[in-house]
């Protein structure tokens, strides 16, 4: 005999649908009653009267049949509804004893381990509470760890996630209270299971009037996996608190919060499974607190650093580094610097790609309003440095270095005020080394661009009267393993523009990575950054162009065979803008020198030197052009055989 499977919810839904169909048919029949049962004769003759009577009788018979059909339909719907209720009742009656029996069996199984070890053999751990914030561990054999409690009390650390047993996932860490760290994620199952994510750090409360802002809480670390599983991601850092505003004491003295709080650091990513599994990424750093922008309100808070990516086990990818937090809005002097990016995690010992470095956090602009005293500073803040890429194991690619953070444009916002020196760009992170047997090395991160220095008058005219910020240096390229080509160094950041003063110097290019330890060509050096130009502003005056950045040196070759890497080109010097007055005869910036070529070891040619950068053009009223940069020196050829590299063009 065949078995009948009934789903009470589906039966109840079908009954509801049928009831709707019956209601629609009944309404349609009622609307058709009068027009069809009371037909008027088309004419005064007997034939017309007979025809009208025939159709009216037919309509009345249809209505009578429809009433009987509606009654049957209603009975069928009632029967179907009753059946669904009967099935649901029977299912509940059967389920309740089974659930009780199941729980009783589990209680018997778990009793010995609860007595001896304080945890069940099978079952999930309990979530944390306000009284006991940490999540409890899952069953020794099977079960997930409980989640940590997310705090609502100021300064209270978030609860840690509970660990799993043999099979299961670790619990998530709870968020920290205001200004406190988040809880760590729980460990994944020893056999298989993912680590829990770290809890977010608590955002700090704003400073009370007259006092500084507090720092944001750090993100919790991600939980590690067991033999097989994914590492938990690190928690995000909390935002820093804003500086307190004005406070007046009984004697009439005014006090201000001078500093804003820094953003919290992102949590580190958890390690991947020992046998297999990717690692968790690092958490993002928290945003710095805002400066109060009034008298004695010096600066915004710095952004928090990104967390480090977790490392993989034997097989798996390393976790990416967390991005640095952006700096807080400026006070009277400067904004907060961007936080540095976290380093990428190492790839699997046997196989796996390494994690890339986190990008540096952005700096912020500055502006001082001379009318109403609401200040956002004079100096633009610096961007954070990019994180280094992780290294690979035997087989795999190294992680790329993170880019340096964006600079703070000084005086970027319109309005009355002054703003001064632009912030420097952050340095790029170094690339990670490639796999020892096979794999590409990671490229170096690009340096951040410097910010422009600006001045804004009462008529909202923009004057670039202050020095531009320097560009950040590029990160070094990663080295190859035993065999392979070294990675290219990162390009230097562009210098910021200026008006009366000089532009920012371009950042230096990163050095190329070394070729394979035995065989391989060295990496090419990164190009130097463009020097900041002297841009004409509303006064018609153009500032001096700045020097371009130096090119990065080429990487050395492998010991047995390989060519040295070429040096990077020097950055062009900044040009002077065309002003509208006779005093715009300012000089252009010098070009950056080219990077030296990398040397060969035993057999191979040396790398060519990089070309020098072009000098910037001078102003049209007799301004001198900048000097061209000197070309880099070619690398030495191999000790046994190989030509020296050519020197770079000037």
Side by side, the strands of the main sheet go 3-4-5
How many E strands? 5
Beta strand %: under 5%
Provide the low-confidence segments as ranges.
368-375, 408-422, 578-583
Structural description of this entry:
This protein has 650 residues and is mostly helical. Among the domains are: 8-39 and 49-103, Helix Hairpins (Orthogonal Bundle), CATH 1.10.287.850; 461-650, no CATH class. The chain is 16% helix and 2% strand. It has two helices and five strands; from the N terminus they run ααβββββ. The strands form two sheets. A three-stranded antiparallel β-sheet has the order 3-4-5, with no helix packed on it. Strand 4 (453-456) and strand 5 form a beta hairpin. The longest helix has 72 residues, at 46-117. The protein is elongated, with a radius of gyration of 37 Å. Residues 368-375, 408-422 and 578-583 have low confidence and may be disordered.
């Amino acid at each position: 005999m065949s078995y009948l499977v009934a789903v009470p919810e589906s039966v109840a839904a079908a009954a509801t649908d049928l009831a709707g169909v019956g209601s629609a048919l009944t309404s349609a029949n009622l609307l058709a009653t009068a027009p069809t049962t009371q037909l008027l004769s088309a004419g005064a003759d007997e034939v017309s009267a007979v025809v009208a009577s025939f159709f009216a009788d037919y309509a009345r018979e249809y209505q009578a049949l429809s009433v009987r059909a509606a009654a049957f339909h209603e009975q069928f719907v009632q029967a179907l509804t009753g059946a669904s209720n009967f099935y649901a009742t029977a299912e509940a009656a059967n389920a309740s004893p089974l659930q009780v029996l199941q729980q009783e069996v589990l209680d018997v199984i778990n009793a010995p381990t609860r007595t001896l070890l304080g945890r069940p053999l099978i079952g999930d751990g309990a979530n944390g509470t306000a009284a006991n914030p940490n999540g409890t561990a899952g069953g020794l054999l099977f079960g997930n760890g409980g989640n940590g409690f997310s705090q609502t009390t100021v300064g209270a650390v978030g609860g840690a996630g509970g660990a799993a047993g043999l099979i299961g996932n670790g619990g998530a860490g709870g968020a920290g209270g205001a200004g406190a760290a988040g809880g760590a994620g729980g460990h994944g199952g020893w056999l298989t299971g993912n680590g829990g994510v770290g809890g977010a750090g608590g955002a700090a409360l704003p400073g009370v009037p007259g006092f500084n802002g507090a720092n944001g809480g750090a993100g919790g670390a991600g939980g590690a996996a067991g033999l097989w599983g994914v590492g938990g991601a690190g928690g995000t850092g909390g935002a820093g608190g804003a500086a307190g505003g004005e406070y007046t004491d009984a004697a009439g003295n005014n006090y201000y919060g001078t500093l804003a709080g820094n953003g919290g650091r992102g949590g580190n990513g958890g390690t991947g499974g020992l046998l297999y599994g990717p690692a968790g990424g690092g958490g993002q750093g928290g945003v710095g607190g805002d400066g109060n922008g009034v008298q004695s309100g010096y600066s915004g808070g710095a952004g928090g650093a990104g967390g480090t990516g977790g490392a993989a086990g034997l097989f798996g990818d390393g976790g990416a580094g967390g991005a640095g937090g952006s700096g807080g809005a400026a006070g009277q002097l400067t904004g907060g610097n961007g936080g540095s990016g976290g380093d990428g995690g190492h790839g699997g010992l046997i196989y796996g790609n390494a994690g890339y470095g986190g990008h540096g956090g952005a700096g912020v602009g500055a502006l001082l309003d001379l009318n109403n005293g609401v200040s956002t500073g004079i100096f633009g803040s610096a961007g954070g440095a990019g994180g280094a890429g992780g290294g690979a194991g035997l087989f795999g690619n190294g992680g790329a270095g993170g880019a340096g953070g964006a600079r703070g444009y000084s005086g970027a916002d319109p309005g009355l005020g002054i703003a001064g020196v632009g912030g420097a760009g952050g340095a790029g992170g170094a690339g990670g080394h490639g796999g020892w047997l096979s794999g590409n090395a990671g490229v170096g991160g690009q340096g951040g661009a410097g910010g422009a220095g600006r001045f804004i008058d009462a008529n909202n005219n923009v004057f670039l009267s202050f020095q531009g910020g320097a560009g950040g240096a590029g990160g070094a390229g990663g080295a190859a393993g035993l065999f392979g080509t070294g990675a290219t160094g990162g390009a230097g950041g562009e210098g910021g523009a200026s008006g009366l003063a000089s532009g920012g110097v371009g950042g230096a290019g990163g050095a190329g990575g070394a070729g394979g330890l035995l065989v391989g060509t060295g990496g090419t050096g990164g190009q130097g950054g463009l020097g900041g130009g002297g841009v004409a502003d509303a006064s018609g005056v153009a500032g001096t162009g700045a020097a371009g950045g130096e090119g990065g040196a080429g990487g050395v070759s492998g010991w047995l065979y390989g060519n040295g890497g070429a040096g990077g080109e020097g950055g062009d010097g900044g040009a002077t803008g065309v002003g509208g007055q006779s005093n715009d005869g300012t000089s252009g910036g010098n070009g950056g020198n080219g990077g030296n070529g990398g040397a060969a070891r035993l057999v191979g040619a040396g790398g060519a030197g990089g070309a020098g950068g072009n000098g910037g053009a001078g102003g049209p009223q007799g301004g001198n052009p900048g000097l061209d940069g000197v070309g880099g020196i070619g690398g030495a050829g191999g000790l046994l055989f190989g030509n020296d590299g050519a020197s770079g063009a000037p």
